[in-house]
Structure formats: structure tokens, C-alpha cells
Design goal:
58% of the residues lie in helices and 0% in strands. The protein is built from three helices and no strands.
């Protein structure tokens, strides 16, 4: 992974964490820090509409949607799963 790819990967993780935090705060829930191992439903209280909002907000911020072709949204369980899905699509796009 070159320097540019590492920067993009770090930016994806930071952006996912920021958007997850926004949704958690909208639900008036508190969490000290968003971490990749946190479960979206069990730990953060996400519901299906929250997941839809997360995907929509991330598509706007990152300008792509890995769930349209590459990854099944139903397989997303943790914050890290979301990060991995975006990073997978980013790497796949960079390789083409």
C-alpha cells in the first residue's frame, strides 16, 4: 500500500467514525469513542433506518457506495465492517 492509499484508507475510517458518531448523537445516546469493534445494533442501538441513513451520509461524504455492487449491507455487523467495506471498494477502484 503506497502513501496515498494509506491516507485514503485512514480518511475512510475517520469519516465512517464521524458519521457513526453523528447518528449516535442524533439518537441522544452517548459513547465515549467510536471503535471498529462496536456492534452497530447491540452496542450503538442502530435500527434499519439508522443503517440507511449511515449509508446515505457516507455516500455523500465519500462519493461512492460499496453496497451497490461489492458488499451486502446485510453482512454489516460492526463499525469495522463498514470501514472494511468502504476500504475494499476504494482499493478495488484504485486497482482498475
Amino acid at each position: 500500500m503506497n502513501t496515498e492509499e494509506r491516507v485514503q484508507s485512514a480518511n475512510v475510517e475517520k469519516t465512517v467514525h464521524e458519521v457513526v458518531r453523528q447518528i449516535v448523537e442524533q439518537k441522544r445516546l452517548t459513547t465515549p469513542e467510536i471503535k471498529n469493534d462496536q456492534r452497530l445494533i447491540a452496542d450503538l442501538g442502530f435500527e434499519s433506518l439508522d443503517l440507511a441513513q449511515l449509508v446515505a451520509m457516507l455516500e455523500i461524504r465519500l462519493n461512492f457506495d460499496p453496497f451497490s455492487n461489492d458488499v451486502a449491507i446485510t453482512s454489516m455487523r460492526t463499525v469495522g465492517d463498514i470501514v472494511d467495506a468502504y476500504q475494499f471498494t476504494l482499493k478495488k477502484t484504485a486497482a482498475t
